[in-house]
Amino acid sequence: MPFDLHFIARLIPALIEGAEVTVELAILTFAICLVWGLIVALANSTRGPLSWFAGAYVQIVRNTPLLIQMYIVYFGFSMAGFGLSGFASGLLALCIQNGGYVAEIYRGGLQAVSTRQYEAGRALGMRRWTLYTVVIIPQVVARIVPPMTNQAISITKDTSQVAAIAVMDMMKVAQVWVESSANTYDVFLGVAIIYLVLTSVASVAGKLFERRLAFAQ
Amino acid sequence: MLEVADVSKRFGTLEVLRGVSLSVAPGEVVVVIGPSGSGKTTLLRCINLLEDYERGTVTVDGDPIGYRLDRRAGQRVRMSEREIAAARENVGMVFQSFNLFPHMNALQNVMAAPVRVKGIPRARAEARARELLTMVGLSDKVAEYPVRLSGGQQQRVAIARALAMDPKIMLFDEVTSALDPELVGEVLAAMQQLARAGMTMVVVTHEMSFARDIADRIVFMDDGLVVEQGKPDQLLFSPATDRVRAFLKRYNDRYRI
Hints:
The complex is a heterodimer. Chain A is mainly α. Chain A is 81% helix and 0% strand. In chain A, α2 packs across α4 and α7 packs antiparallel against α8 (184-212). The model of chain A has no long low-confidence stretch (mean pLDDT 92). In chain B, a hairpin with a 2-residue loop joins β4 (55-60) and β5 (63-64). Chain B is an alpha/beta fold. At the A-B interface, α5 and α6 of A face α2, β8 and α3 of B.
């Protein structure tokens, strides 16, 4: 029976509790990927075997499903004798895959800055650190804000896959409620609305950040 | 002031510079002309080591920039990044494509290097930057970002930016070639003013009448070599070599100076 108000009143607090795990996973994943992705991108920009490994990493993690990566981490580690919790496995898998995407965003941002900008800085006597902090990185940051916002939204939705390895995130809570009540419609509509709210926060934050950095318009 | 000694540079199998030597006296304005691909731009880029080169040395006021001679080994040694950066502070460069920093307004573009490279206090650097922007006729554009400026205005900001480091010598690499014809004059006027103020300058250009007006000496390059050099009127109106005569004839047929 859809739109059962008594049911919804009991459902919402439970979903919100699950949403706390979702938010925690999303924020941790995004924060870790911002650092990890930069390391991968810089490794990729070197010449030699390091860039070969970074390139292979990006190709493999981007081109295989997240769910399978999650199973490999969760079951693989426990078979190897040191099992990680569902939450830790989920977080690790999310970071492994999204780190690849984020690395590509950084790489695109770095490539978009013309070599002439490096030359202009060097001609003014700038050494590497000054050149990067004053000239290059601010331009890279301004260019990558829109795709990073996109990635943050994508990560938020990707966290729902941890439900498959028994983490009590919002999606898993929803599945439990559906099984016990058979009220599919209310539960999943509620879940969708909460995801929409969360991702909207990310979009708005991204837009504000973008506007602050909009020098090129 | 500037001594370029026997500089040779190749891109793969192509020899772009084949032993170029050039000395520029303090306050002198040397204009380098020659056909495309003659090595003019590469020579400028070698002077402040935006290009590495295989042979030769460059010094500014006796101080090496890029490579120093190790007397005991009798060999050329590449200087460290720190030494090269310090040496580049003495050499201002203005590029064909302006290359302003797009995330900074005109004032910030001019102030950035004095503050971040030389450690000059912000207030003093800003006062100096405003002075320089006024000198190039842009006192009303200090807060504008490069995208909002015309090519001529951007290039004048670029000149102010290079001057803000108080260089001993300024290099100009075809600085009007990317400009609409009606914007060329304002940039040339700024350079003219600088030359009159006594700045030592090496100018690569295709503007022959400007070369004649501004140059103390014109250097003609072809095929990676200095073919001929001399006073502007002498080189432009009674050149000693057939190569220069042929170049000028082709130029005159097209533009009539």
